[in-house]
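S2.1 Query sequence (HAT C-terminal dimerisation domain-containing protein)
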Amino acid sequence: LLWWQVHFREFPALGAMARDYLSIQATSVACEQAFSVASNTITRTRNRLQPDTSCALLCSKSWLEKGIGKK
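Output structure tokens follow.
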């Protein structure tokens, strides 16, 4: 994460994605919120998604909400 902190301005979209993907939550509140978001994404009808697919869906949703990748 230190490298991304230094080079964030060179690669803002990738830096934001790296921060989301590589960071470790320091409080339980964010984890509870993440599980709440996950339960809205991974419903009873989508409960057979592979872990990689679930991670990709949750990250993509987060990035879209933050406007990452928009010019």
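The chain has four helices and no strands. Residues 2-66 form one domain.
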